[in-house]
Amino acid sequence: MESNDFFPPHDGIGLRELASHLGAELLDDTAGNRRIRSVAPVARAGEGDICYILSRKARGDLESCSASAILCDEALRPIIPDHIPVLLTPKPHAAFAVAGGLLHPIALRPPRILSDAAGIHPAAFVDPTARLEDGVEIEPMAVIGARAEIGAGTRVGAGAVIGADVKIGRNCTVAAGASIIAALIGNNVIVHNGVRIGQDGFGYAPGPRGMIKIVQVGRVIIQDDVEIGANTTIDRGTMDDTVIGEGTKIDNLVQIAHNVRIGRHCGIVSGVGIAGSTTIGNGVMIGGASGVNGHITIGDGVQIAAMSGVMADVPAGARYGGVPARPLKDFLRDVAESMTRSDERAKRRGDRNE
Questions:
Q1: Paired strand residues for 126
Q2: What is the number of structural domains in the chain?
Q3: Active site: which residues (predicted)?
Q4: What is the pLDDT of residues 184-210, one digit of tens each?
Q5: Is residue 258 flagged as an active site residue?
């Protein structure tokens, strides 16, 4: 790949120092002074790059690899070419993620629109009653509403809108074009481009002349260390709050409806829709394009396969998949049986046509 002006290489970290920081074992100490400047996939990693390998399926990629270091576990150590220094770790994927953050810290958050941004840009609007701690950055065309409060180290991107009375903690990033109303945001929260937080939930009652709008007077509460992907929407509660728990990571294009409560350290992948008043426990993983019914409970540690339809409560620790979602082993058995029946029907059709 050509030189990347968006995320340039690091000045360099010594391999011995990097291994110490990652808690990995450098097997060849004579390589300890090599400088690591960037991350790369195995197949095209070159001098100054670090890469990682998780499976023997990537063995072919090692033939073209000239990385200055590779992260792997003990089981894969024998297949690594002798010319590549090995950093041995039981969790190479996690170690690679940490290494990437060290080498490319600016890529951990949405980039600044202006490289020299500092303080409040003259083209931003900040209501006189808003309270901003020292060290807040407000980029051009952003709007900060009446009585809003923003903590030190937080950056509000170009064109973003922070509504009246919103409170945002310290060291947050609100990227370009996002809007936040009726919300309380914790510390170290990342809100990507185009996110919508705190708009109306979808609530109507049938009336004699059609649908009557139900007022939505709740809030959105987002706890510390949450990350929210681009163009995701999180509706405010009807009368209670919509809550996103500490450390939860939400992908792009996710819809979270009013009164939903999501626990800590969950992962919700792109295209998921969660209907109103659903409660999701801690450590839950929901695969892409899944739909979750309203007014149900998903227990701690549940895993939902991609493109599932969750219609009813799911017990803690369960693995579900399919439409309607059911225990994963049942879903996979049903799929296998369906494929067998399909093959048998195709064979019978073929026999009749002979």
A1: 144
A2: 1
A3: 258
A4: 999 999 999 999 999 999 999 999 999
A5: yes
Query: Active site residue: 192, 258, 265, 295, which one?
Result: 258
Angle at 277 between CA 319 and CA 325, to 5 degrees: 25
Please tell me the pTM assigned to this model. Answer: 0.92
In a domain, residue 347? The reply is no
User: And the tokens for 337?
Assistant: 């049986």
pLDDT tens for 120-167 read: 999 999 999 999 999 999 999 999 999 999 999 999 999 999 999 999
pLDDT digits (tens, 9 = 90+) for 293-322: 999 999 999 999 999 999 999 999 999 999
Q: Is residue 98 part of a domain?
A: yes
Contacts 24+ apart (CB under 8 A), 31-36: 31/68, 31/69, 31/85, 34/68, 34/69, 34/85, 35/68, 36/10, 36/12, 36/68, 36/69, 36/99, 36/103
Residue 57's CATH number: 3.40.1390.10
Q: 246: closest CA among 169, 154, 308?
A: 169
Dump pLDDT digits (tens) for 2-17. 667 889 999 999 999 9
Range of the domain at 79: 13-108
Distance of alpha carbon 68 from alpha carbon 95, whole angstroms: 16
Residue with tokens 């990385």: 67
Is 92 part of a structural domain of the chain? Answer: yes
Contact 243/225 with Cβ under 8 angstroms?
no
